[in-house]
Design goal:
single chain; alpha/beta; five-stranded mixed sheet; 5 strands; about 35% helix
């Protein structure tokens, strides 16, 4: 004797609601993975600690890292090149110039850069520091 349950003649169905849940979970997972893999393009420096006031206008940042190399806008450059490019920028539009020097960098290079910027006609140069 053969029993019938009623399911023998029904076709298979694909449920869309669980499928959409899985797709959204995969989307969230991939977005989170992409955001966590973002790479910062800056140069890591350890700033000295001091007190001062924050600059409010346009800033040109010169980075002096622990290996005593200079970078302007994230691009490595030598001192002469850096001074020329910063002086040209300041002539086009007045802006504040910050020397972001690492704590391990040599003091002489920072002072020489400051002196050359002043002689090139840059009126306002400051050192960037961490607040206490």
């Amino acid at each position: 004797m053969r029993l019938t349950t009623g399911y023998e003649y029904k076709k298979a169905r694909i449920e869309l609601i669980p499928l959409l849940d899985v797709v959204f979970l995969l989307l969230v997972f991939f977005i989170y993975a992409i955001l966590s893999m973002s790479v910062h393009q800056g140069v890591r420096v350890t700033l000295p600690v001091a007190s001062g006031e924050a600059q409010q206008k346009t800033i040109v940042r010169i980075v002096l890292d622990a290996k005593n190399t200079l970078a302007l806008d994230g691009m490595p450059c030598n001192m002469n090149d850096c001074v020329k490019r910063v002086a040209e920028r300041v002539r086009r539009a007045p802006c504040a110039v910050l020397i972001c020097g690492d704590r391990q960098a040599e003091l002489g290079i920072g002072i020489e850069l400051l002196s050359r910027l002043r002689t090139a006609g840059v009126p306002s140069v400051a050192f960037e520091v961490q607040s206490r």
